[in-house]
Design the sequence.
């Protein structure tokens, strides 16, 4: 029998706070994390704003060995994972198990480690690059470091799915549990801001000059952010046996590829529509039952239009409330849908939708019920987390109030 | 795991292009592809080093010259191998779908250092010239999954697109990932495999960390197989080159401060899980396609795990012919396994893959008729 999958713990490292409670309160307060870049010298660039994680100090979260061996990205992943495990009340006996897996997403992973290699190579010659430098760079290290930190002995896997990486990881983690290949999975995603990424998005013309205004007529693009979001997922039986509190149920998820353009979403939103319908159907629901959508909402012209189109296509005239926390924490790239999964689950728990700040002038091309500028109370039994990504990726995950979804046996989707 | 079949292969390797040519080159002892020179970079700083490079590889000759200008080498290797596999499995002919459709086919592919060269290239521009000169057309290559994204774009694959990164175990994990997606009916068929592209930085990294000590050779290439439910494959009359019978993976947390920490225990557990899923005993395994590369720190723990788990099986080191192809290595091993199953050299093949840092995976492939 396919088990239900529950979220039993959450951890987050974000530009708006560490830990789910500080983070959530900052979102509800509508705080804007955007500030001048301090991680590198952006003074000669046309843009210099980002949502950096400033409150994270490795020494507060990592062992001495970890501080020495892991990059900023893995460090934030480990910190968020430890918070999630503490939130879930998971003890070592449950973690140090062959049935405990780790699935983490990212876009570039340990980008600072590679940057260090390149710095040495360019400035001091290849002889200056050490074996340690190279051995510490690999995108596969994120879950390996997390697995080592927690003692997990099941599968460890990196799913680098760009800005949909969190949803890809969460979906796969839920599959592992449903297939009986694990009892508990530590899953999520992490990303750090690197100069290369910042300049790349700048050169793509995607960066906003000062603020992020999803769905606004005058939106000027995205702001980069960083951080990590990690969930503890458990099979129902495992959660019940250890007396865990289920925060939400992971419903169905939908994944598709536009197969259209490497950076631009399909203008007719074909992949997003398909994946959204799939996420709803695989949850055993109909579109009428969705209460709230956490938007990908990057504030680029193309993304927001496509997302609005997908909403109209799937929900018709019913204007489902939608919001983008990227207006506050920026686009955290590979970490985005994992960090935003935390917000989805907080919405399920609280019945409050986080706001989209800087929303001033509605865009007729984005005819949506945007949760503008202040949080709003509303139905929150069923929440969808949307993500799109380079590569034409579309990935959406449904989170629901515990007890709201039909049994997994009633959710079968035939192809 | 639902019963799954491998129904077509594509390969780009110095040993040959395409399943048949690769296999023939692989089995021809007179075909030597290890070289002390490279067309890609100067091997001068690495005395005694050898590479297994796909010399003269020109994707434009195969795919046409439109749209490839900004793609990196890994993407081009992927594109050619993927298209080859789709045709070999009979899903496409002349680029057109003959069976299924775009929404029905996904792809799961591995690489170990996929965006390494692209990031290095743009970091050079940023540091030696100006960050503002970074090419926006090349920037997407810095995203690890972009190469596989291009596969979907070029061959119009609109189901899942999953890049898996797990060192030499990646391609086997891509099979495991796609198997999960196929079991939950997210596609009717999937390309599974992996690739790795040689570059000076990658070669330097392997050299610097000692991974080329003992005669190991840095290699490259890409290989994909088409994987689909066995029943569907049979229903459409496809050639079943192998049945995917079991998959296992494990992680054992490294102890100490070693740069690399391969775990024989993790590999033993992965093999045990794969055999259990395949519902076979170790004694039924006739052939193991090992991941041995001549680098003792990896070869020794693998041998220890195989001695414990599969003591009676013959061993064949695929990397002795391909070089260390990292994310592609499991995919090349699948192609070799299909060849051995077809020839009757074995009815059951195990492919182990030892990761660098405590992780390991294993795959069991069997003849379709031995279900």
Sequence:
């Amino acid at each position: 029998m396919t088990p239900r999958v529950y979220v039993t713990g959450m951890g987050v490292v974000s530009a708006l706070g560490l830990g789910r409670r500080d983070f959530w309160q900052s979102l509800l307060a509508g705080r804007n994390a955007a500030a001048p870049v301090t991680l590198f010298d952006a003074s000669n660039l046309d843009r210099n704003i980002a949502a950096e994680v400033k409150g994270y100090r490795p020494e507060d979260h990592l062992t001495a060995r970890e501080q020495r061996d892991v990059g900023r990205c893995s460090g934030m992943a480990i910190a968020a994972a430890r918070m999630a495990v503490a939130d879930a009340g998971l003890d070592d006996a449950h973690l140090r198990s062959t049935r405990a897996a780790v699935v983490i997403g990212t876009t570039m992973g340990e980008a600072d480690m590679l940057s260090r290699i390149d710095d040495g190579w360019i400035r001091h010659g290849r002889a200056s690059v050490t074996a340690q430098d190279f051995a510490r760079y690999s995108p596969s290290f994120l879950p390996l470091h997390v697995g080592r930190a927690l003692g997990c002995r099941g599968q460890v896997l990196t799913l680098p799915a760009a800005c949909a990486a969190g949803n890809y990881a969460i979906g796969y983690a839920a599959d592992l549990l449903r297939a009986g290949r694990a009892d508990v999975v530590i899953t999520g995603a992490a990303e750090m801001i690197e100069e290369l990424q910042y300049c790349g998005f700048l050169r793509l013309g995607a960066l906003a000059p000062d603020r992020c205004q999803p769905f606004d007529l005058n939106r000027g693009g995205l702001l980069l952010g960083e951080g990590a979001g990690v969930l503890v997922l458990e099979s129902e039986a495992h959660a019940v046996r250890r007396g865990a509190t289920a925060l939400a149920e992971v419903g169905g998820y939908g994944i598709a590829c536009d197969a259209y353009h490497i950076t631009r979403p399909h203008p007719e939103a074909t992949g997003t529509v398909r994946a959204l319908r799939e996420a709803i159907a695989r949850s055993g629901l109909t579109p009428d039952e969705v209460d709230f959508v956490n938007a990908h909402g990057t504030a680029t012209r193309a993304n927001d239009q496509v997302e609005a189109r997908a909403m109209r296509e799937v929900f018709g005239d019913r204007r489902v409330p939608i919001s983008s926390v990227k207006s506050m924490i920026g686009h955290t790239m590979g970490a985005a849908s994992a960090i935003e999964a935390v917000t989805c689950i907080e919405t399920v728990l609280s019945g409050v939708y986080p706001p989209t700040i800087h929303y001033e002038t509605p865009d007729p091309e984005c005819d949506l019920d945007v949760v503008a500028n202040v949080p709003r109370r509303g139905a929150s039994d069923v929440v969808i987390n949307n993500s799109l990504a380079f590569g034409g990726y579309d990935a959406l995950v449904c989170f629901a109030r515990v007890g709201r979804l039909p049994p997994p046996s009633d959710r079968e989707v035939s192809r | 795991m639902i019963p799954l079949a491998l129904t077509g292969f594509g390969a780009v390797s110095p040993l040959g292009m395409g399943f048949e040519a690769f296999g023939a080159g692989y089995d021809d002892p007179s075909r030597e592809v290890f070289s002390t020179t490279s067309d890609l970079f100067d091997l001068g700083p690495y005395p005694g080093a050898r590479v297994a490079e796909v010399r003269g590889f020109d994707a434009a000759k195969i795919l046409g010259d439109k749209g490839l200008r900004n793609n990196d080498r890994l993407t081009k290797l992927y594109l050619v191998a993927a298209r080859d596999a789709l045709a070999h499995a009979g899903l496409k002919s002349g680029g057109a779908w003959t069976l299924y459709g775009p929404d029905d086919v996904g792809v799961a592919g591995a690489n170990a250092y996929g965006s390494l060269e692209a990031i290095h290239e743009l970091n050079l521009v940023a540091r030696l010239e100006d960050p503002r000169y970074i090419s926006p057309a090349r920037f997407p290559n810095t995203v690890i999954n972009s190469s596989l994204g291009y596969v979907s774009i070029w061959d119009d694959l609109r189901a899942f697109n999953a890049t898996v990164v797990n060192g030499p175990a990646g391609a086997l994990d891509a099979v495991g990932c796609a198997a999960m997606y196929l079991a939950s009916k997210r596609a009717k068929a999937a390309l599974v495999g992996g690739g790795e592209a040689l570059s000076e930085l990658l070669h330097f990294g392997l050299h610097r960390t000692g991974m080329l000590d003992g005669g190991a050779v840095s290699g490259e290439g890409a290989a994909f197989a088409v994987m689909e439910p066995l029943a569907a494959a049979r229903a459409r009359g496809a050639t079943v080159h192998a049945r995917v019978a079991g998959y296992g993976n494990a992680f054992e947390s490294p102890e100490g401060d070693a740069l690399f920490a391969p775990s024989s225990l993790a590999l033993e557990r992965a093999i045990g899980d794969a055999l259990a899923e395949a519902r076979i005993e170790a004694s039924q395994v006739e052939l193991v396609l090992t991941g041995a590369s001549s680098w003792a720190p990896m070869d020794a723990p693998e041998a220890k795990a195989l001695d414990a788990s599969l003591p009676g099986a013959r061993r064949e080191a695929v990397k002795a012919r391909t070089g260390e192809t990292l994310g592609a290595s499991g995919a090349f091993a699948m192609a070799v396994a299909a060849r051995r199953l077809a020839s009757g050299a074995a009815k059951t093949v195990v492919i182990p893959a030892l990761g660098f840092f405590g992780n390991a995976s294993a795959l069991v492939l069997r003849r379709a008729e031995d279900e």
In short: The longest strand of chain B covers residues 4-13. Chain B touches chain A through 81 residues (CB under 8 Å). Residues 4-235 of chain B form a domain with the Peroxisomal Thiolase; Chain A, domain 1 fold (CATH 3.40.47.10). Chain B has a mean pLDDT of 96.
